[in-house]
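README: folding subset

This subset contains proteins for which both the sequence and a predicted structure token string are available. Records are stored as plain text. Below is the entry for Transcriptional regulator (233 residues), shown exactly as it appears on disk.
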Amino acid sequence: MRQDSGIGVLDKAVGVLHSIADSPCGLAELCERTGLPRATAHRLAAGLETHRLLARDGEGRWRLGPALTELAAHVNDPLLAASAAVLPELREITGESVQLYRREGTSRICVAALEPPSGLRDTVPVGARMPMTAGSGAKVLLAYSDADTQQAVLSEAKFTDRALAEVRKRGWAQSAAEREPGVASVSAPVRDAKGAVIAAISVSGPIDRMGRRPGVRWATDLLAAADAVTRRL
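--- output ---
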């Protein structure tokens, strides 16, 4: 769930951007996705189009605009820079999908992802927001979160506080068919210079390839990758 800033028009405009990010749409569908009145949705989308944050495709539907890419090119994110060389190497070692997640409140956001060149894969788009109630990446981020966040999530989670204690003990987490049927994953924490966990690095793929205990196979390589990102930070 996205946070509200308390600035109504800004929150609505950001909601429009996120709704259109899922897939291009026309005005009627935009109203359905956002719950906004027709006039409000049109006014916001037209304004965002003026600023090139939205654009129109060949069928007249709104899509994300070029200004977003231009702005993103100026983002200086130390975490992404530190992981730029590590994630491709981890993908080559495992032959599976790799991701990097940050926590935001009681959600986790995929900030980087690479897919194997062929075969069945677990595709997680960059920018995808997921609840922290399932998956190895969620366990890692929640295990090192504050007590209030843990309490808020655990009541609906597919794992217990005992699982989080195990993550802290061995330094990594695994899951099988927890976030999505047929998908397994293993994750490890990425730390900053002070030792605080700021992200989770993950390997995910079909259970048929990774098995129901993917940590047995990939935890060592994943921990090495997490340490490599931490050192580069």
